[in-house]
């Protein structure tokens, strides 16, 4: 009876090793595909990628007042401005259904100087529904 149980045990012998190798190859391919997809779908501005984050200044009182942070802003002044405008507009559309923004410093206005904190562009605005 012990020989019958050993015969049908999964993961022994050549078949088990082949399945383990095949599973490893499949998982490796899946991980590589997932990593590649993240970099291919990045939005570029002026040819550069800018990690961006927009959030409410105070969620408890109102979400319309927000702050936008654009990292690596020194790569391109024009690109950082475009990234800030895009991510802020997306925030207002998602939360208020409007793309109208009242800016403290308008990123579209090229005469407006940018406020940088180290290498991060920091802008504030209010969604105007």
Walkthrough of the structure:
The structure is a single chain. With 129 residues, this protein is an alpha+beta fold. The chain has 2 domains: 2-40; 44-127, no CATH class. It is built from 3 helices and 7 strands. It has helices at 2-7, 13-40, 77-96; strands spanning 44-45, 48-49, 52-58, 62-70, 101-103, 116-117, 120-127. The chain is elongated and about 70 Å long.
Spans of 5+ residues with little confidence (pLDDT < 50)? none
- Rg on CA atoms, Å: 25 Å
Tell me the span between the first and last alpha carbons.
77 Å
Proportion in helices? 40-55%
Number of helices: 3
* Average pLDDT: 82
Q: In total, how many beta strands?
A: 7
How many domains, as an integer? 2
Structural class: alpha+beta
β-sheet strand percentage: 25-35%
Question: Biggest sheet, open or closed, and with what strands and sense?
Answer: 5 strands, antiparallel
- What global shape is seen? elongated
Summarize the structure.
The chain contains three helices and seven strands, in the order H-H-E-E-E-E-H-E-E-E.
Write the layout of secondary structure elements.
Elements: H1 2-7, H2 13-40, E1 44-45, E2 48-49, E3 52-58, E4 62-70, H3 77-96, E5 101-103, E6 116-117, E7 120-127
Antiparallel strand pairs: 1-2, 3-4, 4-7, 5-7, 6-7
What are its keywords?
single chain, about 130 residues, alpha+beta, 2 domains, two-stranded antiparallel sheet, about 40% helix
């Amino acid at each position: 009876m012990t020989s019958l149980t050993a015969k049908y045990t999964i993961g022994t012998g050549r078949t088990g090793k082949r399945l383990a190798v095949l599973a490893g190859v499949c998982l490796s391919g899946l991980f590589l595909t997932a990593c590649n997809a993240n970099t291919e779908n990045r939005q570029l501005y002026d040819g550069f990628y800018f990690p961006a984050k927009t959030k409410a200044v105070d969620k408890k009182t109102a979400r319309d007042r927000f702050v936008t942070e654009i990292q690596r802003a020194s790569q391109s002044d024009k690109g950082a401005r475009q990234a800030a405008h895009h991510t802020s507009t997306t925030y207002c559309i998602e939360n208020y259904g409007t793309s109208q923004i009242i800016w403290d410093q308008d990123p579209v206005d090229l005469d407006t100087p940018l406020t940088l904190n180290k290498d991060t562009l920091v802008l504030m605005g209010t969604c105007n529904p």
